[in-house]
Amino acid sequence: MTSSSVKYDFTVDLSDRSTSHSLLHHLVADEGKAGMQILEVGCSSGYIGATLAAKGHRVTGVELDPVAAKAASSVLYEVHAGDAESFFAQHPDRRYDAIVLGDVLEHMVDPVATLRLCVAHLVDGGAAAISLPCVTHGSVRAMLLEGRWDYADYGLLDRTHLRFFSHNDVAELLSAAGLRIDRLHATMLSIETASQEYGMALRPQSMAAVETLADDDALLDFQYVALARPERSGIAADALLTQNLAVPVQRAPRPRRPGDKSSAQRLRIWLMKALLARIARRRYRGFA
Fold first, then answer.
1. How far apart are CA 154 and CA 13, in angstroms?
2. Rounded to whole angstroms, what are the CA distances from 265 to 111, 261, 271?
3. What are its GO biological-process terms (predicted)?
4. CA-CA distance, 30 to 28, in Å (whole number)?
């Protein structure tokens, strides 16, 4: 993050494909078209759009915050200070090769309606590049284990977030908007790093418990970044959802933890799980 007066303002390192900003850039740029017409909804200061403009694409931004919109106007072709609905009302005939929605849909009351509006303004063969935070990240699980849900100025529990998404929720959102996922990435962040960077103040015991008991691959998924296209085949909505849920999530290898190769550590984890299973059987007899 930069020291700008704009709240959401970052420096994008295009060589680091472990960040959502870089992934959004590459998902769009890898379309391979020259001089694309691109719309970025929720462009903030234009820090992502500027990387695409530098490649010769014509990027229009839409931004509610007037301070951020003013900053974006210095790096993008055109900036609309307002929301997507008012922009498309003023420009009903515009069509775009790509529409970027980076960490913006979670701030909306009705993200499906906004996505559907965007889909209607894509050219044939156009695509939407979308990033969303993952609320099932291990840091949120650990906080809930402590009986807390503490909003913050930034991060997964940003106090301006109105909607929260798991992997399944992302698939449902895009399917409801009539979008078929082509590629899906997850950015990864360790639980302790999330706690430190976003002031979550998690207890080590909570982090260790979540890491030990989690039995899914999404524990360290911090953000989902998708490239999706309008589904024109007319398949049923439930069939589209099934297809989107089946798209594999591309993840970096999970970082090794201290003691991962220790036989004593593995034994302790096995004993902890065995003890918990025994308690569960005794306490919750009759439950499936």
1. 20
2. 44, 8, 10
3. methylation
4. 5
Under a CB-based contact definition with an 8 Å cutoff, are residues 20 and 223 in contact?
yes
Task: Return the HEC string of 21-44.
Answer: HHHHHHHHHCCCCCCCEEEEECCC
Which amino acid makes up residue 194?
A: A
66-82 residue pLDDT tens: 999 999 999 999 999 99
Paired with 133 in beta bridges are: 223
The residue whose two tokens read 């908007």 is 177
Identify the three-state secondary structure at position 222: strand
| DSSP single-letter state for residue 248 | P
| CA atoms of 211 and 257, how far apart (whole Å) | 10
* Axis crossing angle, helix 204-213 with helix 263-283, rounded to the nearest 10: 80
| Total residue count of the chain as it appears in this document | 288
Q: Token pair of 258, please? A: 């201290």
Residues 122-149 have pLDDT tens digits of 999 999 999 999 999 999 999 999 999 9
Sheet arrangement for strand 78-81: 78-81, 58-63, 37-41, 96-102, 122-133, 221-230, 179-188
Q: pTM of whole model > 0.85?
A: yes
Q: What is the pLDDT of residues 145-197, one digit of tens each?
A: 999 999 999 999 999 999 999 999 999 999 999 999 999 999 999 999 999 99
Q: 46 in the Ramachandran plot: left (φ > 0), alpha (ψ -120 to 50) or beta?
A: left
Q: For residue 232, is pLDDT > 50?
A: yes
Picking from 37, 85, 93, 81, the residue whose alpha carbon sits closest to that of residue 60 is 37
Give the pairing type, strands 122-133 and 96-102.
parallel
Mean pLDDT of 29-38: 94
